[in-house]
Amino acid sequence: MKKLTEEDFYKLKTLSQPVAAGKYLVATQTYLDKPTNGYRSNLLAFNRNGKYIGNFDNNDYSSKAPTPAKDYLFFIAKKTEKSPFQLYQLAYSDHTITQVSTLSHSVEQLVAPRTTNLVFFKTRETTEVPKKPYKKFPSVRHIYRVDHKADGFGFYPTDGVYKLFLYNPNAKKTQLIYSSQNNFNLADVDASGNRLALTMDNDPDNDLSFGQGVKLLDVELGKLTACTSKYPNWVFTEAKFSPNGKKLLLVGHSDKYQANTQFHVYSYDILSRSLNDYMKGLDEDAHDYLFTDFTQNLNGDNAFWLDDQRFAFRTSYHGRSKMFLGTNDKVNPFFNEAERITDWSILDSDHLLITYSTTTHPVELATLDLHGKQVNLFNPNEVFDKNHQYVKPKRFVYEASDGLPIEGWLMEPFEPQKKNPLVLYVHGGPHFAYAENFFFEMQVHAANGYGLLLLNPRGSKTYGQEFCQENVGKYGEKDFSDLIEGMDYILKEHPEFDSKRQYCAGGSYGGFMTTWIVGHTDRFAAAVAQRPVTDWISFSGTSDIGFMFTPPRTFN
User: Fold this and answer.
1) How far, in Å, CA of 211 to CA of 357, rounded?
2) pLDDT level of residue 555 (50, 70, 90 thresholds)
3) Cystine design at 360: which of 51, 237, 307, 390 (Cβ 3.0–4.6 Å)?
4) Is residue 368 part of a domain?
5) Against a cut of 0.85, is the pTM above it?
6) What is the CATH number of the domain that holds 473?
7) What's the confidence (pLDDT) of residue 553?
8) Count: domains in the chain
9) Is the four-CA dihedral 531, 535, 538, 544 of positive or negative sign?
């Protein structure tokens, strides 16, 4: 059996965006392309038993976002690395693929009601270039907003116009139905295709106002109706119509703990305009906060209707995904295994279609019924997995000095020696969590002879609101002692690790904590601080999240 090398990242593939489309199952397969050093993807098609039958795209540079309608599968694709994403349709009857749009800019989002052949898609028009090639003497860029850039995108356009189009393949007609200079998210469409759910900033002209609400767009009239205006400072990220169109299933959070507040699942009655918290009294987070380096092109959905009365939702719980079924305003868990459900959708009234990962299994397409039974369908890395061996992390829990339980995972070196080096690898966030999922970088470190200690100190997600709040405004205090005490615990329990070869590393918050650690102890032989926060003032003014992460405070 072979051990992993850095080059193997080009060989492994991931799956995401699983959907049922007609009599087929479709998922997006993503991999890193070595010649261009960029991510490429295509749409894999299966029959309902999970047998691979071919690709549902033109094998272009990248295809993704499979969106089923009545007779067509819609998706977006680009022919080359630098060309824009365009809208395509595939006919279920003969698999004929037709390019729908020929825009000079990318199609970013799309939704379609399954009972019609309509599709709605969003674009962002601008004359500006988000990422310009490096020049020795770059031109000056004038910045007018605090919120002006984002990792993975570049600079936001100052002349941007966000447009929403409707395409009818029966009439072969595209029409503009909504346009705004402020960005919005295309969340869902009702079964008739007459109403769209959008999420957007409540106060888009104020960069220091972080509230995000839900609005309904009447397709025929072009009229917007606010649904969540009673909660101007809350953040809603998902909205889905019930099959009968009478309710919305919302995912969002209040402003009680600002951006750190746990996400809950709500129902919104469109007629009475009333909001109901389905997770009242449940100290869990309806959001995927599990940390890894091995997922791309995730939909990020956390809740779906099964029918007009029942719904399913996902939480992040103690480093794993947990699934709930809601019926008659009551919610009960039906799946809580040691894995991460990376992406999912509704297969039928009793089954979900999922992609998932474990610590030693990069990805799998599977079905999951409402009793928690999981059936594997397809592994894109089956041959690779059979020829390679992964290190299985050992989960453990230790008590901090104040009695608080702290969860972690220990990875032995691939080929253990009598004495082995040990790396304390601090995760970013800090409000994320190490999890029961595949982590390529850690596997490569283990293959190179290192032991890895992965801890979720206080401040990490998935352990409840109070645990997550423990390090807010207190970086370097008990979160620091959690990490050091965790290292002490492992060195005591596992004498095969060499106390003279202790190392520390991490990125973002993990980078900050690495710099903090080496400034407060000399026990580590070496440390690697990646993209650390070392100056809170410059972080607030020049990074893409600093102004949200360190909001201005009023002093009396």
Assistant:
1) 33
2) very low
3) 390
4) no
5) yes
6) 3.40.50.1820
7) 54
8) 1
9) positive
